[in-house]
Design a protein that fits this description.
It is built from six helices and nine strands. It has about 210 residues and is α/β, with parallel strands linked by helices. The protein has one domain: Rossmann fold.
Length: about 210
C-alpha cells in the first residue's frame, strides 16, 4: 500500500509530531514529508531534524500577512508531495488559502471534547470549570475555528485530586495514541465526509 504523505504543522515542543514519527516507524502507513514550525525557537524543529524531516521555519514577520504565509506553506507542502496537512499544536489559524488547497485534508487536534472549550486554553478552561470529563478531538479544519467536521473523540476523566499538570499529561497521552489511529484510517482510505451533513464516517473504526 502506498504510504500517505503528510505535512505536520506545529508551534511548540512537537510531542505529537514525535508520536506520529514513532508510529510511522512502528508500521503506520504514512510518511512525514515536511514539518512546518510557526516559530524559529520551537523544540519540535529539533525533533524533525533528528528524524531527517525537512523543516520550513516561519516567524512572526512572515505571518504579518496570513494569506501570504499560508501560500508559502502550501507551496512548500505541494513541493514535498504532501497529501494531508496535520496540525499538531499549531497555534496559527489557517486561512482559506490552505483550506482551499487541501479541501477536507487539513486535520487538527484539539485538547477538549468539541464543541466544548474551543480555543487556545482548552485544558485550563476545562480544569477551571470543574468538569468531570474532558478529552481530545481530531477534526477537519474549516474557516470556523474549532468547528470543523469531527473525525474522532476520546474522553479523559478528570479526577478529584488532579492538578492541571496531571490532567494535561493524561490528555497528551491520549493525543499521542489517537492521532496516529486517525492517520491510519486516513491512509487506508476509510474516512469519508458526507457532502450534505458534513458528518464524518470511519469505516471499521479506529485501530
Amino acid at each position: 500500500m502506498e504510504k500517505l504523505k503528510v505535512g505536520v504543522l506545529f508551534s511548540g515542543s512537537g510531542t505529537n509530531l514525535q508520536a506520529i514519527v514513532d508510529a510511522c516507524g512502528d508500521g503506520l502507513p504514512a510518511d512525514v514529508v515536511l514539518a512546518v514550525s510557526s516559530r524559529p525557537d520551537a523544540f519540535g524543529i529539533k525533533r524533525a531534524e533528528a528524524a531527517g524531516i525537512p523543516v520550513l521555519i516561519m516567524n512572526r514577520e512572515l505571518y504579518a500577512d496570513p494569506d501570504a504565509a499560508d501560500a508559502m506553506i502550501v507551496g512548500a507542502l505541494r513541493e514535498a508531495g504532501a497529501e494531508y496537512v496535520v496540525m499538531a499544536g499549531y497555534m496559527r489559524k489557517v486561512t482559506p488559502v490552505m483550506l482551499d488547497a487541501f479541501p477536507d485534508r487539513v486535520v487538527n487536534l484539539h485538547p477538549a471534547l468539541l464543541p466544548a472549550f474551543k480555543g487556545a486554553h482548552a485544558i485550563q478552561e476545562a480544569f477551571d470549570a470543574g468538569v468531570k470529563v474532558t478529552g481530545v478531538t481530531v477534526h477537519f479544519a474549516n474557516e470556523d475555528y474549532d468547528r470543523g467536521p469531527i473525525i474522532a473523540q476520546r474522553a479523559v476523566e478528570v479526577f478529584d485530586d488532579d492538578g492541571l499538570d496531571d490532567l494535561e499529561a493524561r490528555i497528551h497521552a491520549v493525543e499521542h495514541v489517537l492521532y496516529p489511529q486517525v492517520l491510519r484510517a486516513l491512509a487506508e482510505g476509510r474516512v469519508s465526509v458526507d457532502p450534505q451533513t458534513r458528518k464524518v464516517s470511519v469505516k471499521g473504526g479506529l485501530v
